[in-house]
Amino acid sequence: MAQFFLFDHPLIQHKISILRDKNTSTKEFRELVHEISMLMAYEVTRDLPLTEKVIETPVATTTAKVLAGKKVALVPILRAGLGMVDGMLAIIPSAKVGHIGLYRDPNTLKPVEYYCKLPEDITEREVIVLDPMLATGGSSSAAIQFLKDRGIKNIKFVCLISAPEGIERLQNDHPDVPVFCAAKDERLNDHAYIIPGLGDAGDRLFGTN
Ligand code: PRP
Ligand code: URA
Prior knowledge:
alpha/beta, binds 1-O-pyrophosphono-5-O-phosphono-alpha-D-ribofuranose, 31% strand, binds uracil
């Protein structure tokens, strides 16, 4: 069974509530996704390995902890995952960024791939896949499979809002991939939208309809 982390931090919960509100503007929505991603990055990177290094402070020599050089790559699922990249990069500035383009066909609800560009050394990196919405789990499961097919082993998935159906799908398809999310909602509706959710994340981020 994959590890599942639900963020109950009051700042995150407060910001998620504003995000859900249909009267929140595109500008504010984008800023909130940025801020929540930043807050989540802190916890998502909790297990990055440390090593020790001798440094000189102005008054003494000491052994200090520094990141062990394990490298990170962020992989947003286009489009909506793009909204989470800058917040994550604010905390992990040396991460490289790959992109996977998938859209959910409105008739079949199945993911269709249209773009992929990944850092050359991605197999040596810890990969954090980003998408604000985990609904049926079709898009995230396909993106993760796509990365695994390219030899990537160390993968985490980070979303803002999840549905029980999507969590179950990811846990079945990718039990080795930890899932981090800010809210677990009630269910999907007949069009596979998350209820209560926040609507279409891509449209709300980019002001499209
Ligand atoms: C949304 C969202 C996820 C997907 C989630 O993208 O950003 O990628 O739907 O649904 P699923 O779990 O049922 O696959 P969408 O297909 O609307 O594309 P967009 O980001 O380009 O708007
Ligand atoms: N994609 C979205 O953007 N929102 C949902 O509720 C489900 C899929």
